[in-house]
Design goal:
Rossmann fold; alpha/beta; 39% helix; 386 residues; 2 domains; single chain; four-stranded parallel β-sheet; five-stranded parallel β-sheet
């Protein structure tokens, strides 16, 4: 009898994407022929908001008590180093997922650790580069404390610097427990910006704060005076549906186009619909891409040939809805295609127009080191896990 492959899955909580874990796992199974589904068994373990202590305890439980073959889950790069000794000492594989709130480490992490990232920071780099080319000097970045604690705003700045920027203002909204809503903290800032007239505003908000920002931006009349460039998350379908009544026109970046007519994307949408009966999101996409990878290694998984699996994971690539993807963090890690989009609304319909292909940052770039050194945040939870 062939033993199934047990995948321990570190599952965080997210009020913004409560279905993140089921979506990712359904995406994984959607990519694998049904006859091979019994080979893989997911064992989830809850890690709350993904802090280091809770994540490490859950990982050790999965490795020691459940004796999983692969340790997986949605975690932060800040927490990853603490998991490596447990993985390596037991000669297990680690395969992790992240939104892309932090750029990868500039040094080698482990021969046992692999991952699939949505690479949100790449969209920020591309937006920064494009924004400076389009609007020139003196843009302003606005972000609350939470979103400012990741590499996203640093990636935007480095993108602008790479395009030649020398002047870029950063406005980090103060955290005020007694005034949690954005509208109570941003009114005076908008008055200041109206006087200073920056060449553009880059907004970096998530969840309900993104909705509040859009509303206040319109109420202040800035939508008619200062161009807006929004983060990729702020241009997600989940957010746009809720602001389609506003008279807005702005720019953003896309790392994956749900409506793409490319064959790989159409297959993805159909397989997810057939298996799970749902509209895929980017978590489904991450799982699906990983399923395509694991499907290529079915013979090795059935033989439990871990040495061969480890070697194949270092070099294997797949062609998925986002194009070519690889899963081992080194200088050959595939850079994504980033589309710069213009977004507006007409009769509550969302209109997106790709106006340019954005510039991604190559993985051997010296900018990596600068971003790591300038970010002193202690944020450990995965982005969107609030």
């Amino acid at each position: 009898m062939i033993r199934n492959i047990k995948i321990g899955f570190l599952a965080p909580y997210s009020s913004i994407y409560p279905e993140m874990v089921p979506s990712l796992i359904s995406g994984f199974y959607s990519a694998i022929p049904e006859k091979y589904h019994p080979i893989f068994q997911f064992i989830p373990e809850y890690i709350g908001q993904g802090g280091e202590k809770q994540t490490l305890e859950a990982a050790n439980k999965l490795l020691s008590f459940h004796n999983v073959d692969i340790l997986s889950g949605i975690i932060s790069y800040r927490v990853l180093p603490s998991l490596i000794p447990s993985i390596e000492n037991r000669h297990k594989l680690g395969f992790f997922f992240d939104v892309g709130e932090y750029i990868p480490y500039t040094h080698h992490i482990s021969d046992w650790v692999f991952g699939n990232s949505f690479q949100l920071w790449q969209s920020e780099f591309a937006l920064g580069y494009w924004a400076h080319q389009k609007y020139g000097e003196k843009g302003t970045v606005i972000t609350p404390l939470y979103d400012g604690g990741y590499h996203l705003q640093s990636a935007f700045r480095q993108g602008a610097v790479s395009a030649g920027a020398n002047r870029l203002d950063f406005q980090i909204l103060k955290y005020e427990p007694e005034q949690s809503q954005v509208k109570g903290r941003i009114h005076s800032l908008f008055e200041q910006l109206e006087k200073e007239s920056p060449t553009y505003i880059h907004a970096l908000f998530c969840g309900n704060e993104a909705l509040e920002f859009y509303d206040e931006y319109c109420k202040a009349g800035l939508h008619k005076k200062i161009p807006l460039i929004a983060s990729a998350h702020m241009a997600s379908d989940e957010i746009l549906k809720q602001i389609s009544n506003l008279n807005l026109s702005f720019y953003s970046a896309s790392l994956w186009n749900y409506h793409s007519r490319e064959k790989a994307n159409q297959e993805f949408r159909k397989k997810v619909a057939d298996f799970a009966g749902q509209k895929p999101d980017f978590y489904t996409l991450l799982g699906y891409e990983t399923g395509l990878l694991f499907n290529k290694l079915i013979p090795e998984f059935r033989k439990r040939d871990w040495q061969e699996i480890q070697q194949r994971l270092k070099t294997e690539t797949i062609e998925g809805p986002r194009g070519k993807r690889s899963f081992f963090l080194n200088s050959e890690y595939a850079t994504p295609v980033v589309d710069i989009e213009k977004i507006n609304f007409q009769e509550n319909r969302i209109n997106k127009l790709v106006i340019e292909q954005g510039k991604a940052m190559p993985y051997h770039h010296e900018t990596y080191e600068r971003i790591h050194k300038e970010n002193v945040s202690g944020w450990q939870n995965p982005y969107l896990c609030v």
